[in-house]
Every structure is written in C-alpha cells, then in structure tokens.
C-alpha cells in the first residue's frame, strides 16, 4: 500500500468502520491478562480494550484526528520504528493493519521488541483470500495485490513464527451483521458493496485499478437485480457467520 493511502481515504473512516463486539472479544481474549497494551496502526481507535492502559500508534494524522474523546493517547509513528524502549508493554496488538506496513517483517520484529508477554494480530491469512465470493467472482485482481510468497498455504504462519516464536491462531468467523465495514464484513449483505461510501472505508478498493472496481460493481449490481447472486449463494442466507480466512494470531513470548 502506498504511503499516502489513508491521507486519501481516511476522511470519514469512522462512518463505516466501528468496533464489532464479537470480534473485539476474540482480540481481547488474546490479550490475556495484559495491563499495558500498545495498539499499532490504531486508526480511529476501534478494538482498543477497555479497563487497560492503552497507547495508540498511528502514522496518519487524518486518522488520529478522528479518535473519539476519551480514547487512548495516540503517538504518530510507524510500526517499523516504534518510538518505545524494549519491553515497554505487556502486549502489543495490531488489527487489520500489518498488511499496510512498508516493511512487514521489520514491523513484526518491532512488535516483538517492545512487548513483554505477547503479540496479538487480527488479520486474514493471505493464502485463504479466495474463500470470499467477492474476490473469487468479481475482484480476482485482489489476489495480485498479495505478494507471491504469501499466497502459499502456511506461509503466513511460518513468517509469524519465524519472527515472533510459537503462534496460536484462533479462527475469527465474520458475523453476518458485522458492525465493522472491512472487506469481508458484508458477505451476506452484497448490496453494501455497491455503496461508494462503504467502499471508501475499505482500502482494497483504493488499491485496485478503478476500472476493475467499476466493472466489479457493475457486474455485482446486475447479478443482484437478476437474482443470479442469490441463486449462486442461497447457502449463505441462513448462516450467522462465515469463515473467510480471518484469525486472531497470538504469540506468547518467552515460550
């Protein structure tokens, strides 16, 4: 992702990106008994755990400006060069942010450096990107955004364990009424992807070629009108949640 991405798309981010309590609970469970927490790539403050001492690190001023009153203090900076001493926090978390880092491996090393007990990540396994119908049927170009080494099964886990030590992955099925409007959130509400304001809060659409996005939206709209989408995906209608490759990855340090 380019450096100025959220300077372009970050305005109004909180309108569609909010904490989903079910996903939050999975993330907070991963933090365990940590009392001091650093949230890296903190954005506007979603998923920051209550009742703990939280510090937020965010590279974009436009995102920091949207943090609500009473949110944790925010420091402007990047994951690759955390402005904190070794072992400054019980736990370090990163929610849907590590794929934006310029040097992901260096960012993971930095998380490991400043964490005393554990590192907790919430994101999707790149090798499972094709599980989502939106990618498989309408936006195959999304797969081209994934660096080739990460497309192999097990590659994400291998990298995490090489840099963080043993990692436990907890599947995070996405609720059908997910409150946080990230890429996979609307798997049972396909018409949401026709809404430009929804797409504006999803970095994937900004990263893809605009012509490809327009074509995908046009095709999805036609399939919804004709009933083709419903016919292909009638099995989703009664699902309360769906596995789309998202996980909470937890590295217990010193083990």
Please tell me about this protein's structure.
The protein contains eleven helices and nine strands. With 255 residues, the protein is α/β, with parallel strands linked by helices. The chain has one domain (5-252): Vaccinia Virus protein VP39 (Rossmann fold, 3-Layer(aba) Sandwich), CATH 3.40.50.150. Helix 4 links the parallel strand 4 and strand 5 (115-124). The radius of gyration is 18 Å and the shape is globular. 38% of the residues are buried.
Task: Report the uncertain regions.
Answer: none
Task: Report the CATH topology name.
Answer: Rossmann fold
Strand content: 15-25%
- In the CATH scheme, the class would be Alpha Beta
Radius of gyration: 18 Å
Largest sheet: 7 strands, mixed
Q: What characteristic shape results from the CA principal axes?
A: globular
Main structural class: alpha/beta
Overall mean pLDDT: 93
What are the secondary-structure elements, in order, as H or E?
Answer: HHEEHEEHEHHHEEHHHHEE
Structural domains: how many = 1
Instruction: Give me the CATH architecture, please.
Output: 3-Layer(aba) Sandwich
What percentage of residues falls in helices of 4 or more residues? 25-40%
CATH superfamily: Vaccinia Virus protein VP39
Helix segment count?
Answer: 11
Count the E strands: 9
* N-to-C CA distance: 33 Å
Strand order of the largest sheet: 3-2-1-4-5-9-6
């Amino acid at each position: 992702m380019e450096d100025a991405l959220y300077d372009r798309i970050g305005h109004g981010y909180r309108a569609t990106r909010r904490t989903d309590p079910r996903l939050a609970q999975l993330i907070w469970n991963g933090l365990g008994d940590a009392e001091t927490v650093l949230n890296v790539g903190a954005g506007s403050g979603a998923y920051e755990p209550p009742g703990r001492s939280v510090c937020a690190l965010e590279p974009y001023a436009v995102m920091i400006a949207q943090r609500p009153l009473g949110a944790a203090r925010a420091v402007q900076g990047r994951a690759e060069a955390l402005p904190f001493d070794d072992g400054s926090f019980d736990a370090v978390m990163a929610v849907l942010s590590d794929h934006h880092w310029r040097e992901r491996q260096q960012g993971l090393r930095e998380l490991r450096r400043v964490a005393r007990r554990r590192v907790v990540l919430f994101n999707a396994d790149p090798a499972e990107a094709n599980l989502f119908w939106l990618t498989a049927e309408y936006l195959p170009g999304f797969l081209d955004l994934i660096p080739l080494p990460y497309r192999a099964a097990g590659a994400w886990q291998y990298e995490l364990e090489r840099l963080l030590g043993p990692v436990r992955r907890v599947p995070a099925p996405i609720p059908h009424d997910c409150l946080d409007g990230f890429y996979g959130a609307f798997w049972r509400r396909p018409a949401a992807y026709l809404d430009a304001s929804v797409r504006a809060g999803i970095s994937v659409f900004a990263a893809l070629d605009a012509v490809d996005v327009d074509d995908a939206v046009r095709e999805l709209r036609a399939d919804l009108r004709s009933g083709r989408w419903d016919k292909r995906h009638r099995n989703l209608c009664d699902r309360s949640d769906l596995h789309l490759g998202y996980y909470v990855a937890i590295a217990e340090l010193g083990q």
